[in-house]
Amino acid sequence: MDGLCKKGRANEALKQWDVMEGHGLEPTDFTFSILLNCLCHASRIAYAIHLLEWSASSKCHAGAVAYNTVMSRLCEMGRWKRVLKLLTDMIKRGVTPNTRAFNIVIRALCSGGKLSIARGVVRNPGVSANVVTYNTLIHYWFHYCRDLHEVWRLISDMAAEKIAPDEVTCTTIVHGLCRDGKYDTATRNY
Questions:
Q1: How many domains, the chain?
Q2: pLDDT tens-digit map of 172-185
Q3: 63 φψ region: left (φ > 0), alpha (ψ -120 to 50), beta (else)
Q4: Can you say where the PPR repeats lie in this chain (predicted)?
């Protein structure tokens, strides 16, 4: 199945999956992940979601990585509402979202222009934010709102959480400030 998926032959991989099931073979978590990834790359997202739902009642359990694969593809497609639903389903099924899962959700919300909702997600106590989380928020806050006060609040939150800014953080801020004509602020602070 891995070979078929690597060659982009999703339909044949699905047939192989059916043959395995027909012979009473339970797919491993590894096989499951391979097929999910293949389906997402082939834009067969509805079937990938169906497999996630199927896994809830099988011996093959979808973990955070499997959900992240599907949520990431949905994010690329601009389907932020579906990303949120999958996150909710994931939690209901007892799968603990990792930082990558939250970053995918934040990116989906931000790219959909839902910055306030994304900000609310980050403020949730169970969310483990990292520098990527904040870089995403800062980028989109400059892109959509050009709200310098909120950007400074985000940077302050990073410091409070002991998350150090990286090169991407600084570049994003300098770019946003310069785009808004705030060259003095950019050169003074960075």
A1: 1
A2: 999 988 888 888 88
A3: beta
A4: 1-27, 63-97, 130-165
